[in-house]
Amino acid sequence: MGNDVWPMVHAERAALIDDLSHLEGEQWELPSLCDGWTVHDVVAHLVDTARTTRLGFVARLARARFDFDRQNTQGVERERGASPQETLERLRQVASRTSTPPAPLDSRLVEEVVHGEDIRRPLGIVHAYPLEAVVRSLRYQARTPASFGGAKELTARLRLTATDAGLSIGDGPEASGTALSLLLAISGRRAALDDLSGPGLPALATA
Question: What is the pTM of this model?
């Protein structure tokens, strides 16, 4: 079932590696859209998640005392190289992997798209994500509980309308915009709120 997911994941990893290869040293230390993490940190996180296996995830979560945030922090510390170029080389080495934590494979698309924007937006880099990848990511986040990093509870009281995809999810006050901006907003990235409109926007601002 996931045979169509991995080519999209690998394509996004390759595109990000290409963008990262053009960065200057100080750009790596810019704050990303992911609270508390620099661009360099997010790249290290992507290395960590690309290496993660189902069994490895469970073992690492246990070592982190079942604290997801602590587990992610430990992963960044583990995979952040002594220099940005070292971390970038690690990302190159794992770019074609197909290992995954115990989660639906569409979660791998969420990782690449949302974290790709965590990195690119602060740097002013515009990337054209395949609409299918963004829509699948949006659908996944909208049906996944907050306890697993999603926005099911939030989207249960809103109607999300993706103006570029002919897609509406949920019932309630409408928030509309591109699928990418909606995905970022329900993933807690406030920078995307300026791209959206509609009476549901105040509720999204609390994500």
Answer: 0.91
Number of residues in the chain? 207
Ramachandran quadrant class, 206 (left: phi over 0; alpha: psi -120 to 50; beta: rest): alpha
Q: What is the DSSP string of 99-154?
A: ---SS-THHHHHHHHHHHHHHHHHHT------HHHHHHHHHHHHHS-GGGT--HHH
Contacts of 118 (CB under 8 A, 6+ apart): 32, 33, 34, 37, 42, 189
Q: Report residue 56: phi and psi, to 5°.
A: -60, -40
Judged by average pLDDT, the poorest of 46-60, 88-102, 117-131, 170-184 is: 46-60
Strands 167-169 and 159-162: antiparallel
CB-based contact 76:37 (threshold 8 Å): yes
